[in-house]
Design goal:
- The structure is a single chain.
- The protein is α+β, with helices and mostly antiparallel strands.
- A hairpin with a 2-residue loop joins β4 (58-65) and β5.
- It folds into two domains: 1-52, no CATH class; 56-125, Hypothetical Protein Pfu-838710-001, CATH 2.40.320.
- The longest helix has 14 residues, at 92-105.
- The protein has a three-stranded antiparallel β-sheet with strand order 1-2-3, with helices on one face.
- The protein has helices spanning 38-47, 92-105, 116-123; strands at 2-8, 11-20, 28-35, 58-65, 68-75, 79-85.
């Protein structure tokens, strides 16, 4: 599980990322809210015992493919990754199957379950 504060030109958001839902993907429930003052939020979280673990810097380009969104992420210190995002109508197992099929069609049949934060922490060891 993780909390993330993301600051972009359009504004800031706090996201709770729940536990991973399966052993094949990094799929998880995410709950997001807009934040007016990310610095104040960071101070509040630190005051109740949370600590900042790392800052992940990435550049994301999005592409539409049917009902899916393909996010091509260039992550500083790690390289380039493809993330398949699906939401809405289908049940979760159907979404997972669709995401894995898309990755296979792109020649990327292997799914990486670790988050960018986990990968960055490993690379620093």
């Amino acid at each position: 599980e993780a909390l993330r504060i993301r600051v972009k030109e359009e504004g800031a958001r706090l996201t709770y990322k729940g536990p991973k839902l399966d052993s094949e993907t990094k799929s998880r429930i995410e709950l997001t809210v807009r934040v007016d003052d990310p610095k104040a939020l960071e101070s509040i979280l630190e005051s109740i015992g949370f600590s900042r673990t790392a800052a992940v810097k990435k550049r994301r380009t999005k592409y539409a493919l049917g009902e899916a969104v393909l996010a091509v992420d260039e992550v500083e210190g790690l390289g380039t990754f493809i993330e398949v995002e699906l939401s809405g109508g289908e049940d979760w197992e159907d979404q997972k199957r669709t995401a894995l099929e898309i990755l296979a069609r792109l020649g990327r049949p292997k799914s990486i379950r670790k988050s960018y934060l986990e990968l960055l922490n490993e690379s620093e060891r």
